[in-house]
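Researcher: Sequence recovery benchmark, item below. Answer with residues only.
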């Protein structure tokens, strides 16, 4: 267990708060109970949601670390708080789609559920005011949000993570439909996985019934959101324990 002191809050987002510590290179990430969807146009919450997402992210981070992928997570020291490396976040949401769902289905008027011939990797510019618009590789480089070399690294790591997550959730009896991750850079220039990996940022369907177990239960008023998140955690514990 690391020795550190939590200082002032430095950031609050839709689902997390970030606190400075007495170590300039480490911050505390606190998971909130809030739920948002459709770029925060729909809001809600449920008790214990922060704890569930923190524990789910912790289990997944530990498994990803076994594959020698660098990440910001250091340790989880409370049910809804983890100590992480302080990074300069690359202002991109990196999305991987394994099956057609959500905005992809709507955009191209395709039925949900079809398995894609290859994993589809997309980038979205992190900007709430602009509603996180889709951006191309050339736009990212031209606007200075990343270099071509860094973007190539992000793509490589993301596809590695996709394979790791698909394998984990297959063992859980769940299909990884799609997910969103973010990356940051350390002062050394190293690119590492940041933010969280939880039902807030993934679509997970029951492999047999296609029942949605993730935040889509909240997005589309499917009911019992907490049970979906708890089911995911229980299955991960069984597989990763």
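Model:
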């Amino acid at each position: 267990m690391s020795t550190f002191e939590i200082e002032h809050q430095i950031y609050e987002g839709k689902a997390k708060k970030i606190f400075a510590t007495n170590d300039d290179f480490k911050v505390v990430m606190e998971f909130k109970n809030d739920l948002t969807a459709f770029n925060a146009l729909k809001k809600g919450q449920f008790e214990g949601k922060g704890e569930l997402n923190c524990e789910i992210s912790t289990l997944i981070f530990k498994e990803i670390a076994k594959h020698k992928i660098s990440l910001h997570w250091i340790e989880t020291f409370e049910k809804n708080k983890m100590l992480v490396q302080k990074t300069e976040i690359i202002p991109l949401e990196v999305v991987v789609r394994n099956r057609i769902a959500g905005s992809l289905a709507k955009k191209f008027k395709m039925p949900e559920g079809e398995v894609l011939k290859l994993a589809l990797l997309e980038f979205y510019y992190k900007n709430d005011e602009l509603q996180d618009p889709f951006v191309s590789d050339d736009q990212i480089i031209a606007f200075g949000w990343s270099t071509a070399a860094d973007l190539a690294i992000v793509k490589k790591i993301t596809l590695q993570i996709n394979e790791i997550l698909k394998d984990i959730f297959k063992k859980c009896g769940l299909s990884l439909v799609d997910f969103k991750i973010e990356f940051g850079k350390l002062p050394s220039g190293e690119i590492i996985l940041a933010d969280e990996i939880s039902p807030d940022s993934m679509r997970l369907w029951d492999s047999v019934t296609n029942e949605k177990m993730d935040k889509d239960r909240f997005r589309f008023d499917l009911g019992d959101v907490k049970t979906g998140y708890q089911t995911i955690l229980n299955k991960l514990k069984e597989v990763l324990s």
